Amino acid sequence: MSVTILAIESSCDETSAAVCCDGTILSNFIANQTIHAQYGGVVPELASRAHMQNIVPVVDAALKNANKSLNEINAIAFTQAPGLLGSLLVGTQFAKSLALALEKPLIAVHHMQAHVLANLIGQVKPTFPFLCLTVSGGHTQIVLAHNPLHLEVLGETMDDAAGEAFDKTAKLLGLPYPGGPLIDQYAQLGNPNAFKFAEPQVPLLNFSFSGLKTSVLYFLQKQKPEFINAHLNDLCASIQATIIHILLQKLQLAAQQTGISQVCIAGGVSANKGLRAAFINMGKANGWETFIPPFEYCTDNAGMIAITAYYKFKAGQFADLSISPSARAEW
Description:
By secondary structure, this protein is of the alpha/beta class. It is 42% helix and 19% strand. It folds into 2 domains: 4-116 and 298-314, 2-Layer Sandwich (Nucleotidyltransferase, domain 5), CATH 3.30.420; 125-292, Nucleotidyltransferase, domain 5 (2-Layer Sandwich).
């Protein structure tokens, strides 16, 4: 039996819908919300309102591009956690209503599990078990994937996420939101060894980025605006190099401890060119087989929700209509 899934992602400020057939993504549409830039960050109330405006046209576009009708859909999948509660509510209620109306099964997906399994989209994919460094605006984790439905968190951030460190240090530099991509852009033109910033030391495979942010703050407070403007490229390159070093030294330690050589990265920060290049180089140096999802599946998207839902469908892991979204659900 062929399995076709309609998936919805609404955990933050992107409204996305995708159609997956037998593990192949047929369409993946994303509606971005530009209004948050003027506030320097995502405003939850505005995000949920925009989701309500975008969700019907985005779902319609995904179905049309996949050349599928609602009658051909075998299940409805949605992001159940974690994320902004108001945003999750929009996607959850839409998915539940659609599943009820069509009398189709409902599949609840954990957002971070989906980021890891984004590496299974496409022809080139890792084999199990594999390691995945998942880095986004809200999470930083090292995950051991035993199989699609058995993921073990080996380490995670004890305070801020890597994506948050990028955006907040960018704000300290006077860059507009979202600042992470701008740091990556300016870093390509700078010297990563120009400045040294703190690398917090935490036990095991966990991470910490709050000390790095404080280090950057104290350094910039001692400088004049003219100095910052004149050395912006070098500052961005040095900040980015520090974040990448923190991330990859822990990933290397995880690979050494587990003996696993199938290694992936995922999440919004995995779109960072500096991280991608450093990860590939580390993989070559250590004899890893490395994998990175295509750019469109790195940031929040429904394609990753759909591929996760496909494996849950095959395992018969369906949700009841009484299910509720959760802002901070554990795995």
